[in-house]
Amino acid sequence: MNVSGALSFIVTNLFDLYIMIVLTRFLLQLLRADFYNPVSQFVVKATTPVLKPLRRMIPGYGGLDNASVVLLLVLILLKLVLWGYINYQVLIVMPPLPFLLLFIKSVAVTLINYFTLILIVGAIMSWVVQGYHPIASVLFQLADPIVAPVRRILPAMGGIDFAPMIVILGLYFLRILFQLDGVP
Fold first, then answer.
1. Which domain range does residue 162 map to?
2. Rounded CA separation 65/23 (Å)
3. Is 184 within a domain?
4. Which H/E stretch holds residue 42?
């Protein structure tokens, strides 16, 4: 029985889920997306209890929600520490530079996984949903900044949008290039 592996799986996935919700909150504010959308309302309600007290200590600057960024980085740091404790039964005692590199890689993996998930779910929803759907609307708003540059370069292909697929391939290329497989 692999109890530590199962516990590690649960802890990292729960942290990843909340990290993605906080990242969505940050991006919704950054992109000035529709906050009256039901999905946006869920994200706001799920993050406000943690962000409200944090905003008193960490003010926003230049339209950026710095409290969301700090919360995001703290959650990734806590995930790494818990992952190390569960897998190695000791708190991570690493030299600062390798731990910083692991932290940066974990942030990169989080961003790559987030945008890959958004693009895949958005592509599936574009096939299934006919007309307006609140989830599809938010997904398209979140994915547009990384897909739009590819759409400008790629010619129209008879009504089929290959831009999300090109972006997903680019994200996997970055994952392989920087050796991010196995990073929590």
1. 3-177
2. 11
3. no
4. helix 38-57
Please state, in angstroms and rounded to a whole number, the distance separating the CA atoms of residues 18 and 72: 9
How many structural domains does the chain have?
1
Q: How many residues does the chain have?
A: 184
Per-residue pLDDT tens for 145-176? Answer: 999 999 999 887 887 889 999 999 999 999 99
Angle at 18 between CA 23 and CA 61, to 5 degrees: 35
Residue 155 DSSP label:
P
Among candidate residues 79, 139, 146, the one with its CA nearest the CA of residue 107:
79
- 182 inside domain: no
- Tens of pLDDT, residue by residue over 3-18, are 888 998 999 999 999 9
Cα–Cα distance, 80 to 78 (Å, whole number): 5
DSSP SS3 for 162:
coil
Q: How far apart are CA 5 and CA 83, in angstroms?
A: 10
